[in-house]
Amino acid sequence: MAVADSLYVPQTDPSGPSPWWLKGGSIFIVILGLLSLINAIAMGVAGLLMAEAVSGMVPEEICASDDESGELDGVEFEECVSLIEELILLGESRIWDVAAAASALLFLMSIPTALVMWNAEDRSTALKLAWGWLGVHAASQLYVTHELVSWSTRFYTEMPSDGLDMGFISTFNQIASYGGVLMCELTMAAGLAMIAYQTRPPTKVELPSAFHMSSTSQEE
Q: What is the SS3 string spanning 168-199?
C-alpha cells in the first residue's frame, strides 16, 4: 500500500476546538484580576498604616522602658533594639508600594486579556496576553516573597530563642514560602498550557487507526 493511501483525509473540514477553553480561562483571569485589585488596595493601606505606626518609634527609648522592674541588661537591650529596628525597616520598606503597584498592574492587564480570551477569535493574541499576565504575576509574587523571607530571616536571627531552634523555624518558613509560590505559579502555568493544547488548530490529515488499516487491507 502506498504511503499516500495510508493517510486518511476527511471529506469535510474538521470541527474546530471548543471556544469554552479560552472562555473558561477568561473567567479565571477575571477572578484573579479582581483579587489583584483587592490586594492592591490592601497593600496600599497596609503600607500607610505600617509607615504611620513606626514613624515615631525610637528603639532606645522603647527598650529602656521595656522592663517594669528596671532597665534591661546589655545583651537584652541590644536584642530589643535590633528587633525594633527590624520592625521599623519593615514599616518603611518599599515592598508595600511595589506589591500594591504590581497588583494594580495585574488588574489592568487582566482586562484586555479577559476580553480577548472571551471572544475566542484570536487564539495567538489571547495566549500571549495570558502568558504575559502570568509572567508578571510570577515575578511580583517571587519578589514580594523574597523580600518578606529575607526580612523574617533577619527577624528570627535577632529574636531571643528561649530554647527554640530559630534556625529551623527560619528554614521551614523559607521552604514553605518559596514552595507555596512555585506550586501556585506552576499550577496556573499547567492550566494555561492545557488551554493552549486544547485550542490548537485542527489538522485535515489524520493517521488512520489500526482497525481502519486492517479493514482496508481485508477489502482489497
A: HHHHHHHHHHHHHHHHHHHHHHHHHHHHHHHC
Would you state the cell numbers that stand for residue 102, as one nine-digit string?
504590581
Residue 123: how many other CB atoms lie within 10 Å: 20
Give the Cβ contact number of residue 101 at 10 Å.
15
- What sign does the dihedral 107-110-115-118 (CA atoms) show? negative
- pLDDT tens digit sequence for 7-44: 444 444 456 678 899 999 999 999 999 999 999 999 99
Cβ atoms of residues 139 and 98 within 8 Å: no
Rg, Å, the chain Cα set? 28
Say if residues 102 and 136 touch (Cβ distance below 8 Å). yes
Q: What is the largest CA-CA distance in the chain?
A: 104
- Alpha carbon distances (Å) from 205 to 7, 8, 12, 14: 7, 6, 11, 9
The pTM score is 0.78
Nine-digit cell string for 175: 521552604
Buried/exposed code over 142-158 (b: 16+ C-beta within 10 A; e: otherwise): eebbebbbebbbbbbeb
